[in-house]
Design a protein that fits this description.
The chain is α/β, with parallel strands linked by helices. The chain has one domain (6-206): Rossmann fold (3-Layer(aba) Sandwich). The protein has helices at residues 55-65, 76-79, 85-101, 135-144, 158-166, 193-206, and strands at 6-8, 11-15, 28-30, 69-74, 108-112, 152-155, 171-175, 180-182, 185-190. The chain has a nine-stranded mixed beta sheet, sandwiched between helices. Helix 1 (55-65) packs parallel to helix 6. The chain starts with 5 loop residues before the first strand and ends in a 7-residue tail after the last helix.
């Protein structure tokens, strides 16, 4: 049986690559399904994975800016028994491979399989790691010594934005969504090329302020 980077039965935390970062750098957080790759429901077949347009350029911009790129993804399909961690690993590997073909790389992947509709140890409602709760972002921030208030999140669901807000981030981009503000947290839409350009500019700007020595 393949060994997977599970911190507990329903939490995957994987460091990818060997890049290191100074303490206090901001990060680019991204949801996966529907944000990086085209959402196919409960993706369990790597052959069906395709990237969304323009997202690789955003991740590459973060790479060039010297800031960590972190995937934070809910995977209730595992709790529901639709597929297992082995299938998740294959699909996720395909996502990372496709990004690599476009010159983009990810530094950490966190996935939460807990869901109230699951079975066995994964049948947990409102788990702190499951978005809209901020647990995955907080865990990544701790491990990578991230400056959360300067970090950004990109996602396709309000739960992604809420997780970012609860984690103390300042801004998020909502795929095919509307702009809004929730207290100190600003949401920008990500629908067309001009929106992508705005996100690219924001990501590039993150690299201009140094982290702590």
């Amino acid at each position: 049986m393949t060994s997977h980077p599970l911190q507990e039965p329903g939490l995957w935390v994987e460091s990818v690559g060997a890049r290191t970062f100074a303490k206090g750098r901001p990060a680019l957080f991204l949801d996966r399904d529907g944000t990086i790759n085209v959402d196919t429901g409960y993706p369990d077949d790597p052959a069906r994975i395709a990237l969304r347009a323009d997202i690789a350029s955003v991740i590459a911009a973060a790479n060039h800016a010297g800031i960590p790129v972190v995937i934070v993804t809910n995977q209730s399909g595992i709790a529901r028994g639709y597929f297992g961690w082995e299938e998740f690993a294959k699909v996720n590997g395909r996502v990372l491979d496709l990004l690599g073909l476009e010159g983009a790389s990810v530094d950490m992947v966190l996935a939460c399989a807990y869901h109230e509709g699951g079975a066995g140890p994964l049948a947990v409602g409102d788990h702190p790691m499951r978005k809209p709760n901020p647990g995955m972002l907080i865990e990544a921030a701790k491990r990578l010594r991230i400056d959360a208030p300067r970090s950004l999140i990109v996602g396709d669901k309000p739960a992604d934005m809420e997780a970012g807000r609860r984690a103390g981030l300042a801004q998020g981009w909502l795929v095919d969504g509307e702009g809004s503000r929730q207290g100190n947290f600003a949401i920008s839409p990500l629908r067309d090329r001009s929106d992508v350009d705005g996100l690219l500019a924001a990501v590039t700007a993150l690299g201009e302020a140094p982290g702590e020595a």
